[in-house]
Amino acid sequence: MEEVIEVAVVGGGPTGLLLACELALAGVRVRVFERRSAPVRESRALTMHPRSLEVLALRGLEERFLSRGRPLPGGHFALLDTRLDFSVLDTRFQFTLFLPQALTESLLEERARELGVDLRRGHAVEAMRQDAEAVELTGTTGGQPFRCRARYVVGADGARSAVRQLAGIAFPGTDGTRTSMLGDVTLGTPPAAPFLAITNERGNVAIVPLGPGVHRAIVTDAEREGTPLKEPVTLDELRASLQRIAGSDFGIREPRWLSRFGNETRLAETYRAGRVLLAGDAAHMHYPAGGQGLNVGLQDAMNLGWKLAAVVRDGAPDWLMDSYHRERHGVGHALLRNTQAQSALMGFTPETLALRELMCGVLKNPEVNRRLAEHLGGLDVAYPALELPAPEGAAPLLPDWTGRRLPDLDLRLSAGDNRRLYTALHPGHWLWLHSTEATRPAPRWEPGWAPRASVLHVSPTGGSERLRGVGGLLVRPDGHVAWAWAA
Question: Are 154 and 304 in contact (CB under 8 A)?
């Protein structure tokens, strides 16, 4: 009888690797097909945002990344001079972590192999057919054909996703209207500031250090923004644009990577088509403003992983997997809207430059700054209630908690010891938090399948004061609240 694996993930970038880790942690047999024969050396993304660091902390992985990255106290919106202050955010990770994507992929691959993920490099998926029982993938590796049947397939294979196209999922949006240049280079006379951002009527420039002797220069030249995306960037072109916009070429030489990118913006019509699902850039394509693409992809993977595992391994109903589109499609839409807004603000007309000046003043308002930092940091996402059967029991539910992300609360257990909330979620299970202050019984949970769940009895005193008045919480494996009930 032909082997049918449980889940095939197409794409071995950060999104696909984290998803594979989540599935393997739950005991799902997962195989990753990556068309590249070796890990990439270039890094499109350079930062991890607070919520992505929380996602890693939910599984006890954060120290691997923190030890290799550099914390930065804020971020930017459209390269405005007034920076976003992440130090005020409600999280243990009040910063962005400067960490090249190549290193992020390496660390996630290391974790995937620890969990026994079957990662197959040099495998290009070229055809796909699904029936009522499984999905058949065919393609080539080393010039030879390969074939695989899987109960479910997830496309995490980038903005030009073969899986999305083969599944017939529409990808509506807007065509690109401008292109920008990127160069990882040596600078003979680098700027004194660790982050240089210049915008004027001639274009904009951002320069950041990548490591010893290497800087990244990102340039949008008003005279060159109509250059076709496929036209290769040259060092002379980048040098001339830097000189024109910034008044210096900073002694640019020794290019390690030159690339051109645009502001084409698209969102998959659905994140699920039968047994095929999409995650990361396969589901959303946008201008890379604020470094959000990689981060939203990791958060897609966290949302999908436990749900897909519950369907495959625990007999959860199909509606649980449908909730993935319901919860993440709106996040993708918000991502596109804010990157489009940033793209517009990075223009060079007198009107846009005046708007930039006004927005710099607006962002000096602490509340406005904080809300925008929460949005870019991924901390403001709240989901609608899951379609769980109505709970039985006398305890009234607290609807304002439903769907909210929980920070990594300090808990005082009933036995008297202390524990952080996220440590209880490391196995990837649901979590019941029962308060010793509760005077009513907890609601009975009969979801219709056999979810894995842990239990903690906590005291609202000596730990997180947020739990005062709360009798308990049912916490999803991704750290969002499914139910909260009164004490």
Answer: yes
Contacts of 55 (CB under 8 A, 6+ apart): 18, 298, 299, 302, 478, 479
Domains of the chain, first to last:
5-46+100-174+265-346 (3.50.50.60), 179-262 (3.30.70.2450), 399-486 (3.40.30.120)
Summarised one tens digit per residue, pLDDT across range 290-348 is 889 999 999 999 999 999 999 999 999 999 999 999 999 999 999 999 999 999 999 99
99 close to 68: Cβ distance less than 8 angstroms: yes
Q: How far apart are CA 141 and CA 124, in angstroms?
A: 6
The alpha helices in 255-365, defined as continuous H runs, are 292-314, 318-345, 350-362
How far apart CA 39 and CA 42 sit, in angstroms, is 9
| First-residue to last-residue Cα distance in the chain | 55
Which residues make beta-bridge pairs with 397? 485
pLDDT at 40 over 90: no
Pseudo-torsion of CA 452, 457, 459, 464, nearest 10°? -10
Cα–Cα dist 407/421, whole Å: 8
Look over the chain and give the mean of its residue pLDDT values, rounded to a whole number: 94
Considering only CA atoms, which of 430, 426, 330 is closest in space to residue 22? 426
pTM: 0.96
Whole-angstrom Cα distance, residue 371 to residue 362? 12
| Coil, helix or strand at residue 456 | strand
479 exposed, middle or buried (CB, 10 Å; 0-12, 13-18, 19+)?
Answer: buried
Phi and psi at residue 468, to the nearest 5°: -65, 130
Express each pLDDT in 60-87 by its tens digit.
999 999 999 999 998 999 999 999 999 9
Q: Is 188 exposed, middle or buried (0-12, 13-18, 19+ CB in 10 A)?
A: exposed
Q: Residue 19: helix, strand or coil by DSSP? A: helix
**What is the tens place of the pLDDT at every residue in 384-436?**
999 887 666 657 889 999 999 999 999 999 888 999 999 999 999 999 999 88
In degrees and rounded to multiples of 5, residue 308 shows phi and psi of -65, -40
Per-residue model confidence (pLDDT) at position 355: 97
> Nearest 5°: phi and psi at 188?
-70, -35
149 token code pair = 């049947």
| Predicted confidence (pLDDT) per residue in 397-406, tens digit | 899 999 999 9
Which DSSP state fits 27? T
CA atoms in the 13 A half-sphere facing the CB of 322: 7
Q: Is 97 left (phi over 0), alpha (psi -120 to 50) or beta?
A: beta
**Weakest-pLDDT range from 9-13, 172-176, 220-224, 447-451:** 447-451
Angle CA(114)–CA(70)–CA(425) in degrees, nearest 5? 45
